[in-house]
Write a structure and sequence with these properties.
The complex is a heterodimer of chains A (247) and B (221).
Chain A (H helix, E strand, L loop, with lengths): L1 H21 L2 H20 L2 E6 L3 E8 L4 H15 L3 H4 L9 H38 L3 E3 L4 H31 L3 H19 L4 H10 L4 H29 L1
Chain B lengths: L1 H18 L4 H25 E2 L9 H16 L11 E8 L5 E6 L5 E7 L6 E8 L2 E3 L2 E2 L8 E5 L2 E5 L3 E8 L3 H7 L10 E2 L2 E7 L4 E4 L3 E6 L2
């Protein structure tokens, strides 16, 4: 029993290291998408306000990494889908493995990618500030962020990005199960987005956003995201195991 | 800066389109350079940003209360008891043996001018400009405020207010932090537009005539 566990752990470790190297290209798309978000944010910030009187006209532009983070969500979502596709799955045949070790190494790869994505997304906020400094040729006013807030920021961003990875992985898995899902899921998503409140009487996506985005108690937020992430990864892994039986 | 960023971005897009899947070595370089840029930006940002915004946070009600006190002191001619932080300008004009001083303002809205007569005729007009404060979304940016321009031309003291445009860039924590700190990106909603009051100490016998844009009030003894 002990020997089996060691083999499984070794296999997962080897597959994970291999996937980090094999999927390195996904990180260049991370750089690209974050730079795109920084450029978009630099035009007029993420929010603006203005006021004027006879003597004075005040324009305030607010800058933050708010746009970079959702762009990172999109990257995480698409990266997770990508690793479920056949060319990427074929990497697993390099090793003596099973579906479980493959899934575990995929989850580990997504976790590692998410850590990198989360940290760079938060640091990209500083790049934005620097760009503002040179563009506006004036001081950028900024609040001080305590170490505790920085750590919360990194961890919460990680959880958000990992959540999108888990959803992406699940969606990718469903599509591999049946190609019909590649049509069904976007149709359901956009229907819910545009017509959800008309058909159901409530907007599912708004409720979903409120469930995570408006949670102000950190421990409950952690619980909500971790449980959701676990549910999606367990469901995906179960489907992969089912796929193995079918083949 | 945006232009350079866009050019760089276009170059990156062209690169991606032309070369399709990047080689592993190139990806390593892209990632390494990007991370180095982020680290350099993180190091440089504290040197290039004003991190005092949290010290600028004010309570609008408190600002109003303090200003009412200042206004009351000024109206009673107790200028010496007003805190120096409210003084934007302190200057004086030599009026010689002038009998009548005309005050003229280019503002559409009325300009408040308080006049205190000195006990003697020292042939000088001491001018002070006090400001209420420039509060933007609960933060005090009074240090950005430009005072009215005072100029003595012949017998006329001209008060000129040219429209001042203030562009502020305020950076906030990203939403994963704000979600748990309760901080809002707009930070606050109250604002004050930097009202200014002119206080003139004039020679005892000098007559003052003002145009209709000036709300003139005699103070003190």
């Amino acid at each position: 029993m002990s020997l089996t566990n060691t083999n499984m752990a070794e296999t997962v470790k080897k597959q994970f290291c291999f996937k980090l190297k094999a999927n390195i290209d996904s990180f260049s798309s991370l750089v690209f998408i974050q730079l795109l978000a920084v450029v978009f944010s630099s035009f007029s910030g993420v929010a603006t306000s203005g006021m004027s009187s006879e003597d004075i006209q005040i324009n305030v532009n607010y800058y933050s990494a708010d746009l970079v983070i959702p762009f990172t969500f999109i990257w995480a979502f698409t990266t997770a889908i990508t690793i479920t596709t056949r060319p990427y799955r074929n990497h697993d045949f390099t090793f003596i493995s099973n579906r479980l070790s493959s899934s575990l190494s995929n989850i580990l790869f997504l976790a590692a990618a998410t850590i990198l994505g989360s940290i760079t997304a938060l640091l990209a906020g500083n790049l934005l500030k620097l760009m503002m400094y040179f563009r506006l040729e004036s001081l950028v006013f900024s609040g001080t962020t305590s170490l505790k807030e920085v750590l919360i920021g990194i961890f919460v961003t990680f959880l958000y990005v990992f959540l999108f990875s888990a959803v992406g992985y699940f969606v990718g898995t469903l599509v591999q199960l049946n190609k019909l899902f590649s049509v069904l899921i976007p149709v359901l998503f956009f229907s819910s987005l545009f017509f959800g409140s008309f058909i159901l009487g409530f907007s599912f996506l708004t409720d979903l956003f409120q469930f995570y985005g408006e949670e102000t108690v950190l421990s409950i937020f952690i619980m909500k995201t971790l449980v959701t992430v676990a549910v999606f990864f367990i469901a995906s892994t179960s489907i992969w195991n089912q796929l193995e039986v079918r083949r | 800066m945006s232009f350079i960023a866009i050019v760089l971005l276009i170059l990156i897009i062209i690169f991606f389109i032309k070369f399709g899947k990047t080689s592993r070595k190139v990806t390593h370089w892209i990632l390494s350079i990007y991370m180095a840029v982020l680290v350099v930006a993180t190091v440089l940002v504290p040197l290039m940003t004003d991190n005092t915004i949290n010290q600028k946070k004010v309570d609008q009600l408190e600002i109003d209360r303090l200003w009412n006190e200042v206004d009351k002191k000024l109206s009673q001619g107790q200028i010496d008891q007003v805190d120096a932080e409210y003084v934007l300008v302190e200057t004086n004009f030599d009026v010689g043996h002038l009998k009548t001083l005309k005050l003229q303002s280019n503002k559409v809205n009325s300009t408040r001018v308080l006049i205190e007569r000195k006990p003697s005729n020292d042939e000088k007009v001491d001018a002070f400009i006090f400001r209420k404060g420039l509060i933007i979304n609960d933060y005090d940016f009074s240090d950005q405020l430009k005072p009215y321009h005072l100029e003595l031309v012949d017998q006329t003291l001209r008060i000129t207010s040219s429209q001042q445009e203030i562009n502020l860039a305020i950076s906030s924590n990203p939403f994963p932090i704000r979600q748990f700190t309760g901080e809002s990106i707009m930070r606050g909603h109250s604002s004050a537009h930097g009202d200014q009051v002119i206080y003139l100490r004039i020679p005892h016998d000098l007559e003052v005539v003002a145009n209709e844009q000036i709300d003139l009030l005699s103070v003190g003894g």
